[in-house]
Amino acid sequence: MLYQISGKQIDIGAALQTHVKSVVDAIASKYAERPTDASVVFSRSSNEFVCEVSVHLSTGLTAQAKAHDHEIYAAFDAAADKMEKQLRRYKRRLKDHHKERAQPVEFSEASSYILAQQDDSTDNEPESLQPLIVAEMEQKIQSLSVGEAVMQMELAGAPVLVFKNEGHNGVNVVYRRDDGNIGWVDPA
Which residues form the Sigma 54 modulation/S30EA ribosomal protein C-terminal domain (predicted)? Predict the structure, then answer.
């Protein structure tokens, strides 16, 4: 498994990196099949350390956890506990969904744009109806079943997930509604 352990304006020592690798290895080998890479980022927020852990699985799923504490090791251990709980909770669902999958999830390329926010403080009409593009990136869209997409969205803690439906190769969207339920958009 590939590791990317980094700190935002923090020096990460060899002892902490060794601790992170051993704990993530133990969690991944116990609850996840074929993890591909893990990313652990440490940062500071006022007087606390923040740890963000993300583990990518070959099935296309991504599990993420975030925690903060006054000590850097405690912040990582709290994030690792959240990750372990998350993977344990979804282990049965992961096995059920991927037991018949012989190949890893396919990815399609798509363009992603970040648009500038309109300034509504003035009453003037904009010169153009075309929005100002701030950034342009490439995104990978996964080819999943609806159940896998919902699971991926929940594991990532994301409010919305765009995916390619395996059933008919159309682009679909699942999202968390305000009432707590999951919505699914399947254009005709």
Answer: 130-183
